Amino acid sequence: MLVIKIGGGAAIGEGGYANFAADLAAFQEPFVVVHGGNAEFSELSRKLGMPPRMIESASGRVSRYTDAPTMDAMLMAYCGKVNKRLVATLRDHGINAVGLSAIDGGIAAGRRKPVLRGIEDGKTKVLRDDHAGTLETVDARLVRLLLDNGYQPVLTPPALSPGGVPINIDGDKLALELAVALGADGLLFFSDTPGLLANRADETSLIRDIDASDPAAALAAAAGRMVVKVEAALGAVQHGVGRVIFADGRIEAPVTRALAGAGTTVRTSAVAPASA
Amino acid sequence: MLVIKIGGGAAIGEGGYANFAADLAAFQEPFVVVHGGNAEFSELSRKLGMPPRMIESASGRVSRYTDAPTMDAMLMAYCGKVNKRLVATLRDHGINAVGLSAIDGGIAAGRRKPVLRGIEDGKTKVLRDDHAGTLETVDARLVRLLLDNGYQPVLTPPALSPGGVPINIDGDKLALELAVALGADGLLFFSDTPGLLANRADETSLIRDIDASDPAAALAAAAGRMVVKVEAALGAVQHGVGRVIFADGRIEAPVTRALAGAGTTVRTSAVAPASA
Fold first, then answer.
1. What is the pLDDT, as a whole number, of residue A63?
2. Average pLDDT for residues A73-100, to the nearest whole number?
3. B41: nearest CA in chain A?
4. Is the minimum CB–CB distance between B165 and chain A shorter than 8 Å?
5. Is A165 on the interface with B (CB under 8 A)?
6. Coil vs helix vs strand at A37
7. Which end of chain A has fewer CB within 10 Å, C or N?
8. Three-state secondary structure call for residue A96
9. What are the φ/ψ torsions at residue B101 (nearest 5 degrees)?
């Protein structure tokens, strides 16, 4: 069983969905898709006159401020347009897709941090009613029920927090926790790069393999934003996911090529001792 | 098992969802919710600079023209904002809700009529790429799987047509076909009136009961737009739905009050012969 995360950047649009659909239609193995929607979310927010508000915390972390109308825009972009267009494309290729948010069936829950403090446009701000949140629990029962009955779940943030409030959670984290909960053979992250790059500005600097049995060396080789991704991948492998692949979502046959080694593969290279 | 259609008019907003959630939380019986989203759809379309385009056919039927960007707005309003806000509210009241469009899992399929001819603003028009459609088939397997496993499905248009194209179908029709497919004990339509009115301008002219065993008399009593609703209700009862109720969705405990007789109830009044 594979968990396939399709990034929400502008580079993987509706043409990209068709590439995934054509590729996945030939698959025999069950799979779960988790997708983002950031490009559509930003475009809708801009059209609605709500440009993204970015807040930088004291520690330098940049977050997007999500008030209630912005959460509505997120629901519309992620759960409405992206989820249903992707499901329609997958179904048109013969895949028995079912689109869900992580709110549905209690798939993911977390807590919000309603007050966001930080710097916006050089000024200190205290912004209330933030709908950003942290993923705390994943309940894979609904996803497993669908898989066991021949459906391919297609999931998206947001998740739910107490009081019935949707929260903006990280889609990569959602995919990872689901892969662990389901004991996936593979967790594939597709975005608009060929994989993890030693030099972000150079697409030819692809790192082919990362050995999860030597985490210190793996992390030493990672730089900048890559550290978080490598840490997450190492964690997934430690928790039983067969392998984690970072690969290009802009190309034809993206899943087949990723599984054939075209991206960055993180796995334990140690050969298992032969059984007696 | 009940099928509960919640209309998408402006009068049943998020406050209305809480009324339904509080009422349904006390229910022991399984149920399916089907909802509309027309008020949200119109508001979003207006905000995006795409006001509704209404076309009148030669026979006088008024349709809304739905091109691809308008379909995206429909997906965003119905499947994004309304579906997920409603599911979040239901879940917050302890209901194990799962939100789906009729695209998901092949719940509803139909055909589009891509060319729309008629009068717009007094001029004859031929509009292409229309995403309006006619519901042709309902597949209740996914809905039944969810019900059998303790989930309460929350469904919304659109449906899917060949080629992976979402189509705008009538939500009342979707609810009705599902109720028939599931053999529902009751099909409840909630909108912003107390039920079917003998005089549309007078809310006190409520028709309490319609006897489905005398369809000619039932239709003779109906006038104007009510004819379509009465015909649909009679058809549902003929096809095995226990009773059809048209009731007020703007009040507290809307389901409990509808089942207690507060709206218009369509059913067969004939007493079944005692078994030997």
1. 84
2. 98
3. A76
4. yes
5. yes
6. coil
7. C
8. coil
9. -90, 170
Mutate to test the interface with B, among A20, A71, A76 (most CBs of B within 10 A): A76
Q: Do B91 and A103 touch (CB under 8 A)?
A: yes
The CA-CA-CA angle for residues B52, A71, A233, to 5°, reads 125
- Torsion from C-alpha of A233, A81, A86, B144, nearest 10 degrees: 100
Phi and psi at A219, nearest 5°, equal -75, -30
Grade residue B270 by pLDDT with cuts at 50, 70 and 90.
low
Quickly state the pLDDT bin for A261 (edges 50, 70, 90).
Answer: very high
| A83 to B79: CB separation less than 8 angstroms, yes or no | yes
- Report how far residue B261's alpha carbon sits from residue B271's, in angstroms, rounded to the nearest whole number: 18
Residue of A nearest to B148 (CA): A145
Asked if the C-beta of B19 comes within 8 angstroms of chain A's C-beta atoms, the answer is no
- Give, as one character, the DSSP assignment of residue A123: E
Q: Which of A108-112, A128-132, B38-42 has the lowest mean pLDDT?
A: A128-132
Measure the CA–CA gap between B248 and B258, rounded to whole angstroms.
Answer: 8
Residues 94-133 of A with CB under 8 A from B: 96-101, 103-106
Out of A98, A103, A166, name the one closest to residue B104 (CB).
A98
How is residue A156 annotated by DSSP?
E
Contact B88 A151 (CB under 8 A): no
The topology (CATH level 3) of B2-46+69-106+139-267 is Carbamate kinase (3.40.1160)
Which residues are bridge partners to B166 per DSSP? B160
Residue of A nearest to B103 (CA): A88
Q: Give the residue from B101, B171, B100, B160 showing the smallest Cα distance to B131.
A: B160
Is cis: bond before A158, omega within 30 of 0? yes
On the question of pLDDT at B276 being above 70, the answer is no
Per-domain residue ranges of chain B: 2-46+69-106+139-267
Which of B150, B38, B36, B44 is CA-nearest to residue B102? B36
Probe site for chain A from B104, B107, B165, B167 (most A CB atoms < 10 A): B104
* A154: phi then psi, degrees, rounded to nearest 5: -125, 105
DSSP string, chain B: -EEEEE--STTS-HHHHHHHHHHHTT--S-EEEEE--HHHHHHHHHHTT----EEE-TTS-EEE---HHHHHHHIIIIIIIIHHHHHHHHHHTT--EEEEETTGGG-EEEEE---EEEEETTEEEEE-S--BEEEEEE--HHHHHHHHTT-EEEEE--EEETTTEEEB--HHHHHHHHHHHHT-SEEEEEESSSS-BSSTT-TT-B--EEETT-HHHHHHH--TTHHHHHHHHHHHHHTT-SEEEEEESSSSSHHHHHHTTSSEEEE--SPPPPP-
